[in-house]
Amino acid sequence: MNIYITKQLSTSIYRISNSTLNQSIVSNLRAISTSAAMSNKNRTFELPSRYKGTKESVWTEYIQMALDYKPLNLGQGFPDYPPPKYIMDALAKASNQSDYMLHQYTRGFGHPRLVAAIAKLYSKLIGREINAKTEVITTIGAYEALFSTIMGHTEVGDEVIIIEPFYDCYEPMVRYAGGIPKFVPLRLKEVSGRLPTSADWVLDKDELESAFNEKTKSIIINTPNNPLGKVFTEAELTHIANLCKKWNALCISDEVYEWIVYKPNKHIRIATLPGMWERTITIGSAGKTFNVTGWKMGWAYCPANLMKNLQMIHQNTVYTGVTPIQEATAIGFEIEVERLDSDECFFNQLPKELESKRDYMANMLVNAGMKPTIPEGGYFMLADWTPLESKIDLSGEKDMQKDYKFTKWMTKSIGLQGIPPSAFYGESHKNLGENFVRYCFIKKDENLQKANDILLKWKSSLK
Ligand SMILES: Cc1ncc(COP(=O)(O)O)c(C=O)c1O
């Protein structure tokens, strides 16, 4: 019952009690009025209906589980070792200068030194002049860049195509904007005689094509992909690009792992394909670029007419980012842009450093009896854990999806934490992720060895 009805009831009670003194009617109306007021009160404390249906995210649940059970955590995607020294020095310098303005609000759409550095870097990478003032925005992590993009470019009822498995915040963001997510999964091809790689996870061309229609507003892609590590090829991106052009759709390209690509694979920016600059918003993250996830420093670049819509959302939610963090990121980019083609460049060192960790993890998982998919990029690995299914008792876990049961069992019983990949699928496709677990390998070698020891010890305890 709404407030208007509640008020009407109160007025009626007053009138009746003053004219007829019919006590029974009065007390009945009072009861109705009280219950109406109560239901209004309950509404006061409820999540607005447009957000209902949003579940606790996998991160909230699994971070709490890590705190409770203290497993070796290969769940969350961050390094468990320090970032490169020059980037820590950049932050120290940015925070310890006599220039007091570095501790005050900076330009809302991006700290001038940083947007200049981002524009310079990506102008070089995508082969067109990017305007630092109108075509770049800096955000609180790539997360906020995604939020501003999705909110700023989704009309109520618009369809947004999301490729599965996907970074889990895409779906609620689309729904909050009033959009309708349309899921299209990458499917694992049959492979025999070798381990699968992330290149074996492919889109069915027809399935993708049939997801597009006149209601399609945009498609969200993520290359290299989290959690799979798939690096989309030029042919795959061209197919997506052609569909975007055919249906006049936008492309939201989450490229936060752009520098973490293992040879001979190559990161291709979809914005560089013919006719795509004008319809692509590309998103990046300093967290992934410089190994500083705690800085929550992101950005987006796109043509000025598309950027205006992101600016509108950003201006009225966050308004401005953190000045010293932006200054430090600018210093980092200025250093790297001068040595992009050299081995010294951190962006080139990072995948080399991670490749041996990737290979170590793949062996470790094979030895434990799982079947990993070898990633072409990023720092996550999916592994099929079902060869172990008959050896473990998951009946103590009550979740719907069996990857949740497996990862919870593993955290609690053998002290190793991974993430359940069904969290990266829409409701109707969760079964596609259930046979897998996601582990992160941007971890100290000694911790990867500890994970190996844990798995071997567990395996040898099996009858
Ligand atoms: C694919 C993807 N996009 C976006 C983000 C969010 O990045 P940030 O930490 O910069 O907000 C992440 C973080 O893990 C990610 O994996």
TrEMBL record:
GO terms for biological process: kynurenine metabolic process. One of its GO terms (molecular function) is pyridoxal phosphate binding. Keywords: Aminotransferase, Pyridoxal phosphate, Transferase. Pathway: Amino-acid degradation; L-kynurenine degradation; kynurenate from L-kynurenine: step 1/2. GO terms for cellular component: mitochondrion. Residues 71-451 form the Aminotransferase class I/classII large domain. InterPro entries: Aminotransferase_I/II_large, Kynurenine-oxoglutarate_AT, PyrdxlP-dep_Trfase, PyrdxlP-dep_Trfase_major, PyrdxlP-dep_Trfase_small. CDD domains: AAT_like (cd00609). Its cofactor is pyridoxal 5'-phosphate. Belongs to the class-I pyridoxal-phosphate-dependent aminotransferase family. Homodimer. This is Aminotransferase class I/classII large domain-containing protein. It comes from Phyllotreta striolata (Striped flea beetle).
